[in-house]
Design a protein that fits this description.
Layout (H helix, E strand, L loop, with lengths): L2 H19 L1 H16 L4 E5 L4 H7 L9 E3 L13 H6 L5 H7 L8 E5 L6 H12 L3 E6 L1 H4 L18 E4 L7 E3 L8 E3 L1 H22 L15 H11 L8
Parallel strand pairs: 1-2, 1-3, 3-4, 4-5
Antiparallel strand pairs: 6-7
Helix pairs in contact: 1-8, 2-8, 3-8, 5-6
Amino acid sequence: MNAIDRYFAVCHETAEKVLTSQRDALEKAAEAVADATQNKKSVFAFGASHAGLITQELFYRTGGLVTINPIRAPGMMLDMTPITGTSKLERLEGYGKLILEGEKIGEGDLLILHSVSGRNAVAIDMAAEAKRRGVKIVALTNMNTSSAVASRHSSGKKLYDFADILIDNCGEKGDASLTLPGLPEKAGPTSTVVGALILNAVAVRAMELLLERGIEPPVFVSANLDGGDEHNARILEEYRDHIFYM
């Protein structure tokens, strides 16, 4: 097998490992999303740098839940220059709390936090502030990495310490998965591929749970399909008190 075959294989193996070892956590996360939606509470998602790609995958997305709100902040996404600034800012203590202060998040809401290492201050401070406000936390992390590195926060804590529901993405330590002959560094990260799979699975299970409860899930239809704009406008209006990205 060349690297194409091996990368597909390792992503498949990692996904299967998640499905077998994390199924209970996935179910609990789906129930939390369904409960928040049913109870007209708000759902938020955050990740810094590449971890933030999963946040972008979840919101304003065809086939996705209308009610998932992205938390976006200066220096936390991949649109800044120099890009190395993201690494510095996510280590800045106090910034995560400051970001959350700008969000309409409170008691009974749900926060999905994604960090591969779980060691940096922005996610830890955000998690701590969310807990103080009575917010439930779903933490998506890489336990092979997080358990092997020291916290960069003065508390000594990591993201998983704040999780009400903890999902391990089952990736390799450091995220990269392939060893290539002649290359000392590993290649082929899996956290984005598998992370998107994990949280989309959580979302569709939440939709299924809502249907089982007799509730129409608030799901986006492609705006490029006939009737899509009308459907989306109706759902956005129905849930407007819990949508903060419009």
